[in-house]
TrEMBL record:
Protein's UniProt name: F-box/FBD/LRR-repeat protein At1g13570-like isoform X1
Residues of the F-box domain: 17-70
Alphabetical list of SUPFAM superfamilies matching this protein: F-box domain, RNI-like
InterPro entries in UniProt: F-box-like_dom_sf, F-box_dom, LRR_dom_sf, LRR_FXL15/At3g58940/PEG3-like
A UniProt-annotated Pfam family: LRR_At5g56370
Length: 294
């Protein structure tokens, strides 16, 4: 009797496993997206069919929880193994990185750049000794989403922009540009966020489809009106200089005011007190005696 009950349980369990195995591979991958790397790997012992399912998942994410459970050297080896032994395309790669990993991260980027990557996030820890320099192979990838934190953006001379990019989020990114790479064409870009970035003074990004633009803590010289005056589809914008504005910057104030007037579809606008001081400088420059930037 006990053996019969045991057989029934095995039969029921096997039936459930068969039904799970019969799911489309993309559905199984979506289930794995809600698991840790370890749990997804453990699924490979369920059956022969499941042995390589987890290593074909096109989305790889190594966040804080992944790093918290093991030593840095171990995480590096684990990620290297997963990337090098992966089957099929890797469309999404998100990872925290440390300065001691930079040379290995270069190897990851080389493997990923030729494997269908469209979504890349690299969070180089701010307590790292050095920012991560994005390797040249990444600039040739047809990315649709790019998020960089504490990195150096120095594209090769042949780089003209990410033509398929839709979202670009940059925090504490240093731009190292020359004349050949200062003007970037991004015809499909819809969201552009700069936070505490440097080296933007000579950057020109042409993005006619842009819907959202934010500048935070990048300095008054970071926002160049010229290229963004053509963003007539812009709906949301935020500008926060996080620094005092010199009283002799009337020319800058006029240009920024003209920039706002060139966005006919703007529905949300966030300005800090330093930007408002620039607007007051315009009024004062135009001869309004009661306008004050104090």
């Amino acid at each position: 009797m006990a053996m019969t009950d045991s057989c029934k349980r095995l039969a029921v369990g096997g039936d459930k496993l068969d039904r799970l195995t019969d799911l489309p591979i993309n559905v199984i991958h979506q289930i794995q997206d809600h698991m840790s790397i370890e749990d997804a790997a453990k699924m490979s012992v369920l059956s022969r069919e499941w042995r390589y399912v987890w290593v074909s998942n096109p989305k790889l994410a190594f966040g804080a929880q992944f790093y918290k459970k093991r030593k840095l050297s171990t995480t590096t080896d684990v990620i290297s193994t997963i990337v090098s032994q992966h089957h099929g395309v890797i469309k999404k790669f998100h990872s925290i990185i440390h300065s001691s990993q930079h040379s290995v991260v270069d190897e990851w980027m080389l493997l990923l750049s030729g494997n269908g990557l469209t979504d890349l996030t690299l969070h180089n820890l701010t307590n790292s000794k050095a920012p991560y320099r994005l390797p040249s192979c990444v600039y040739g990838v047809e990315l649709e989403r790019l998020v960089l934190w504490n990195c150096i953006f120095r594209p090769p001379c042949s780089f003209r922009g990410f033509h398929k990019l839709k979202r670009l989020n940059l925090k504490q990114v240093s731009f190292e540009l020359d004349i050949s790479t200062a003007s970037l064409w991004m015809p499909n870009l819809e969201r552009l966020n700069f936070m505490q970035c440097s080296g933007l003074r000579h950057l020109n990004i042409y993005a006619p489809e842009l819907l959202l633009l934010t500048f935070y803590g990048c300095g008054t010289d970071a926002l160049k009106p010229g290229p963004f005056m053509d963003c007539v589809k812009l709906e949301s914008a935020g500008v926060s200089f996080q620094e005092e504005v010199s009283q002799n910057r009337q020319d800058k104030a006029v240009k920024l005011t003209n920039l706002l007037s060139s966005w006919p579809n703007i529905s949300f606008l966030l300005l800090d007190r330093y930007f408002l001081k620039l607007l007051l400088l315009v009024l004062k420059w135009m001869g309004f005696p009661r306008a004050s930037a104090d």
